[in-house]
Every structure is written in C-alpha cells, then in structure tokens.
Amino acid sequence: MGLTVLIVGGGGREHALAWKIAQSPQVDKLFCAPGNAGIAEVAECVSVAPEDIQSLKSFAVKNRIDLTVVGPEVPLSLGIADIFEKEGLNIFGPSQRASLLESSKIFAKEIMREHGIPTADFAQFINPAAAKAYVKNKNCPLVIKADGLAAGKGVFPAQTTAEALAAIDRIMLQHEFGDAGTAVVVEDFLTGEEASFICFTDGITIIPLPSSQDHKRVFDDDEGPNTGGMGAYSPAPVITPQLEAIIMRTIMYPLMQALNARGIPFKGALYAGLMIEDGCPRVLEFNVRFGDPETQPLIFRLKTDLVDILQAITRGRLADVAIAWDPRPSVCVVMAAGGYPGNYVKGLPIAGLAEASRIPEAFVFHAGTALKDGQVVSAGGRVLGVTARGNTIAEAITTVYQAVDKIHWDGVHFRRDIAYRAINR
Ligand code: AMP
Ligand code: GLY
C-alpha cells in the first residue's frame, strides 16, 4: 500500500509541494487543505482552513494520513506539529516552541544575541513610551518590527525619527496587528543584498538547499511597498560556496546548537532571511517553513523524491538521504491582482493558462485561484507563480516571461525584472 499524504495550505508554495509530492511513486493519495484550482489537478482539495487544527487532526485520523506536510507559519505557531504527534500522526514541520523563531522576533533576536549569531543590534519594548524614548535617542534609519506574526506586514523601515514614532503608534497604540504588536523590536538598519537560505533539518543533521532570492517590493527596481514576494529565483549568485560555508558556520550550526541546548530540536525547513554586505551575512529574520515564492524555483530544481526527504526528517534520519539538484537555474514570476498588496477584487476569470502550459520548461503554479463553473478565477492577492528553467539564468528569464505573456486577467500586474541581480553580476 502506498502513502496517503495531506498538505496544509493553499498558496503557490503548497502547489509546488503538491506538484512534486504527486510525482512520488510512493504516494497513492494526496489531499490538500484547502488547496486551490491548480492543486486540484494533482490532489483532492478539502475545505478546511490551515488554522483549524482540530478539524485537520480529525481529518487526518479519519483518512489515515501517513504524512502531513505543513506549508504556512500560522498552524505551526498554533502547535499543529505537537497536536498531531500527540495523536500518533506523522507530520513535517517544527513544534510550537521551535516555531517561536518566526512567531516571536524577540525570541529569535535573544537567541542570536546569546550565541553571537550575526544580526542587527536591537532593543525590545513592551512599553510604547519607552520605545519612543529609545528611538528619539538613536540615529535613523531604524527598523521597527511587531514582535509577533503579521503576515510580513509588521516591519517598518524608518528613515526619520517621525516615521519610527509613527510605526510604534501603529503597532502598539492602534494595534494594527492585534496581539502581535504587544511588543516591538527596534533594530539598526542593515544595508546590502538580501538572500534566502533554507535548510532541511531533523534536529541532528542540517542540509542546505540551493540558495534563492525573493523580490519583496511590488514594483520593478525594488520600488513601492513590501509584498509577500513578487518573484524568486535559484541559485542566487550572491551566495558563493565560500559564503555558504560561512553561513553554516556562523549562523545555522550555532542556531541548531542553541535550540538543542534549550531542548527544542527543530524538524522541518529552517529559513534564514539574510542581508549580505561585503561577504558578511547577517540575519534579518528566521522562518520555520519553506519560503513563498522561493519554494517554486527550488522545487523545480529538486531531483530527489521529496517524500523520501520529508519522511527521513520526521524520523530523524536525514543523514541517510542523498539530495540531488538540477544545476539549471529556475525563475518564478508572481502574477498579482490589481491593487495588491493593497485592496484588490477576487473572482476575475484568468485567460491563457492552457497556452502558457504549452511552453516547454515552464510551469504555472497557482496561488490565489479558485474554480468557478469550470473556469479558473482569481481568489487572492498573489494569484499565480509562473516558473521556468533554462541552461542559463538569462534563458530561464526569457522562457518564464514567454509563459507570463500568454496569461491575462483584468488588472493583473507583475514585475518585469525578476532575477535582475543575477544578470547584473
Ligand atoms: P523581516 O520580516 O524581519 O524579514 O522583514 C521584512 C523585510 O524588511 C526584509 O526582507 C528586509 O527587506 C527589511 N528589513 C528587515 N529588517 C531589516 C533591517 N534590520 N535592516 C534593513 N532592512 C530590514
Ligand atoms: N518569501 C518570503 C517568505 O516566505 O517569508
């Protein structure tokens, strides 16, 4: 009998995971909660929200799920891994305590400070007046961050003291992020080039995935507000083999040791968002899951059966698997709804998906999509993650935009310059 697998989530990252897991000869049946229109082509979508842990648990018990794979951070921060394991269910994703690395910026910063892991200097406050007094005594630029989860929106770079004070008001007095803003972190502003560094780990062995780079700003040339990510590519040439060794030695191994010393082994995908300046990596944030959209180009390059890797991690046997990657670069361009990252409408029919899927070496991962009367319609801010590979990064870029240019809906927008940093090198 083959395996029954459940994926939790319904974005582009989860479509990439589902697409790859569905290719595993070990898998008989694949479910996804809640999934999307693209995921529905490879999995049975179940309409349960990723935050509804009790319903997910009942579903997993009833359907004899052999492996649950968690995409987003919220269910992890709610303790889905602990609750499933208590029930005897096999699950890929860290415990609630290990997830504090992402769900509490103060927790992450304190671990880094204690263990000498390079990151921006910081101070933390639960009292808004104290935060403001501190900011008035510091030179800008600074970065003000809500302590808790805020879907990437709780981070405010401040060029002036007035902006820093306004950010503290929004987080701590206007409670824009609810409880996530009970405490703030005030950080020194780092400059350099950002990169995403993701590792597989079972708490004993830690193995880096190839490097990748996200594009957070909504417009070309990194203009406009931050988003969940407008595109990604892998590998990111800023991370040379020498730099990868430095990142492992100064960040990832010390972090693993620090977690183990606290009795919090980490099982899952451990993601360090880095700022790199003059060959020196510093941590901006940790995430306790795969990146979105970084997962799309990364999974496109993974040759090994993903189920082998995930199972090895849940069993604490990651050292036993050899992981192989396609050397060809991959690029993912996010196509977003008009207005995103601000307000946008849903339910618009998407044209050209079949034409795009005929472009060789390209694939359209769905993010916010749904099926309405047999037609794929938009159902979120980030709607599609068109992904392609090539023998060179330039070739991958040409192919990905060929596919992107086949697709259209009312108000769609996307960046034209994804992976420009790789080209400029
Ligand atoms: P975070 O969610 O903490 O990674 O922050 C989101 C984005 O804000 C990062 O990807 C950076 O672009 C920016 N950022 C965060 N912290 C800093 C910092 N200390 N200095 C400069 N930019 C930062
Ligand atoms: N791409 C950034 C993230 O997944 O948090």
What descriptors fit this protein?
425 residues, alpha+beta, Dna Ligase, domain 1, D-amino Acid Aminotransferase, Chain A, domain 1, 5-stranded antiparallel β-sheet, binds adenosine monophosphate
What's this model, at a glance?
With 425 residues, this protein is of the alpha+beta class.
Strand content: 25-35%
- The H-level CATH homologous superfamily of the largest domain, spelled out, is ATP-grasp fold, B domain
Radius of gyration: 21 Å
Output the CATH topology of the largest domain.
D-amino Acid Aminotransferase, Chain A, domain 1
The poorly predicted ranges are: none
Major sheet summary line: 5 strands, parallel
Shape: globular
Give the CATH class of the largest domain. Answer: Alpha Beta
- The structural domain count equals 4
Which structural class fits the helix and strand makeup? alpha+beta
What's the CATH architecture name of the largest domain? 2-Layer Sandwich
Query: Bound small molecules, which ones?
Result: adenosine monophosphate, glycine
Extended strand count: 22
Q: Can you walk through the features of this model?
A:
By secondary structure, this protein is an alpha+beta fold. It has four domains: 3-93, Rossmann fold (3-Layer(aba) Sandwich); 121-188, Dna Ligase, domain 1 (2-Layer Sandwich), CATH 3.30.1490.20; 193-320, D-amino Acid Aminotransferase, Chain A, domain 1 (2-Layer Sandwich), CATH 3.30.470.20; 330-424, Alpha-Beta Complex (Glycinamide Ribonucleotide Synthetase, Chain A, domain 4). Helix content is 31%, strand content 26%. The chain has helices spanning 12-21, 53-62, 73-77, 80-86, 96-103, 105-115, 128-136, 161-173, 241-261, 295-301, 306-314, 353-357, 393-404, 420-424, and strands at residues 3-9, 27-34, 44-45, 67-70, 91-92, 122-125, 142-146, 155-158, 184-188, 193-201, 206-208, 213-214, 217-219, 223-226, 231-234, 268-277, 280-287, 330-336, 362-366, 369-372, 375-378, 382-389. A five-stranded parallel sheet has the order 3-2-1-4-5. A hairpin with a 2-residue loop joins strand 16 and strand 17 (280-287). Helix 7 packs antiparallel against helix 8 (161-173). The termini are far apart. The relative contact order is 0.13. The mean pLDDT is 96. The structure holds adenosine monophosphate and glycine (GLY). Residues 120, 143, 145, 152, 155, 157, 187, 189-190, 194, 216, 273, 284-285 line the site of adenosine monophosphate.
